[in-house]
Amino acid sequence: MPRLDFIAPLFVPASRPERFAKAAASGADAVILDLEDAVRPEDKAAARQAVTTAFTTLPVVLRINGAGTSWHGADLDVAMEIRPAAIMLPKAEFSPVLQGIGEKAARRGIGVIALIETARGIAHAERIAAAPGVVRLAFGSVDYAADIGCAHTRTALAHARSLLVLASRLSERIAPLDGVTTEIEDGTRIEDDARHSRELGFGGKLCIHPRQIQPVLGCWKPSASDIQWASRIVGTEGAVAVDGEMVDEPVRARARAILARVAASPARSAVG
After folding, report:
1. Are 79 and 50 in contact (CB under 8 A)?
2. How far apart are CA 211 and CA 262, in angstroms?
3. Phi, psi dihedrals of residue 140, rounded to the nearest 5°
4. Same domain assignment for residues 184 and 247
5. Which has the closest alpha carbon to 184: 2, 6, 3, 11?
6. Which pTM was predicted?
7. pLDDT per residue over 87-143, tens digit each?
8. Domain around 35
9. What's the total number of domains in the chain?
10. Residue (of 168, 134, 161, 129) closest to 145 by Cα position
11. 17 and 126 in one domain?
12. Could you tell me which of 203, 207, 216 has the C-alpha nearest to residue 179?
């Protein structure tokens, strides 16, 4: 199965195939072809016929329409045909539908990213994360806020975000993807939001515009000072003081995680 630990995947409407290669060349480390919210009902069929993975060597994720919609079955069929790196299932909740999709996708070497956007999804996040075929969770924060009637603010969404991180860890899944920042002009805002996501334990953030990619990637890339600190820490033993900081095994574990992120971030090239 392709690597699905990407940090800054970029959404592109599946109805705009002329944008696929541009998305792959944007600096994103994955491309999400969107058959759902970004495509008008009258364009769904044409968009479905346009989807492909041939435009890039990056992981391609296909967001299909949700279970219960008239487009879901055909979307799932085309996903099985083109075999993207993963299917993103919107409004994911724990159900026989999720389990069936996960098992079918796994047989084809396709992962499932469960996009959690409802109160029921948050309540069952651990069960969703542990479902067969599910490799990662993602947070549909805007839809979730609408579903429960809360503000789309850090305070209002803190509990849901923490539950997704915890569920992912308990199920030994890749750290989840945080929801989008709707502001696309303000680089400071996206960077601040991404830093907040990283501090909570998310493994990346969904992007809706190329301007968002570098600020997001930068928040998950260890700084030179982080790397220097980690390099000094990993060689210590027992409980010792390093540069005025008490170091024991939990601190060394954090240092090893930083160096592991550096080692696991090879340059990825795009075709197109």
Report:
1. no
2. 23
3. -90, 80
4. no
5. 11
6. 0.88
7. 999 999 999 999 999 999 999 999 999 999 999 999 999 999 999 999 999 999 999
8. 9-221
9. 2
10. 161
11. yes
12. 207
